[in-house]
Structure formats: structure tokens, C-alpha cells
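Running low. Any example?
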Amino acid sequence: MVELLRSNDVVLLSFAEAILTQAGFSPFISDTNMSILDGSIAAIPRRLLVAEEEAAEAKATLDEALKAAEEQARNAPEE
């Protein structure tokens, strides 16, 4: 397994997992239980993993989706 993302941001991890799953990959979020056990101190980030043979394509897919989301947020009208 290859790590694509390490974060305590559950929204980011959920977004990344959904993007990769929708693209046909089989992502796995590890350290979820350990992260929950540490409480709110954020000492143990969760890791998004994919199979080694999928890593390059999955990383490109995730990078593209994150870039598009950042661009969309940047261009969103302010309220």
C-alpha cells in the first residue's frame, strides 16, 4: 500500500476517498481508530492508502480533483 494523503481533516479524507472510489480505485483509510482514541489533540493523523500498482494513477486523479476544488473555491462568489 502507498500513502497518498495524511491528515486529521475528516472532510478532506472523505472527499479524497469518494473521488478515488468513484474513479474505480480501492482506497483505504488507516489509523482511523487510533486517531479517534487520541481525542482532539490530533497526534495521530489518518492515512489514505491505495494499492502500489494503482498509486501513480490514483495520485494523478486525486491531485486533479483537489486542484479543481481549490479553483472552484477561489472563484466562488463571496456572500
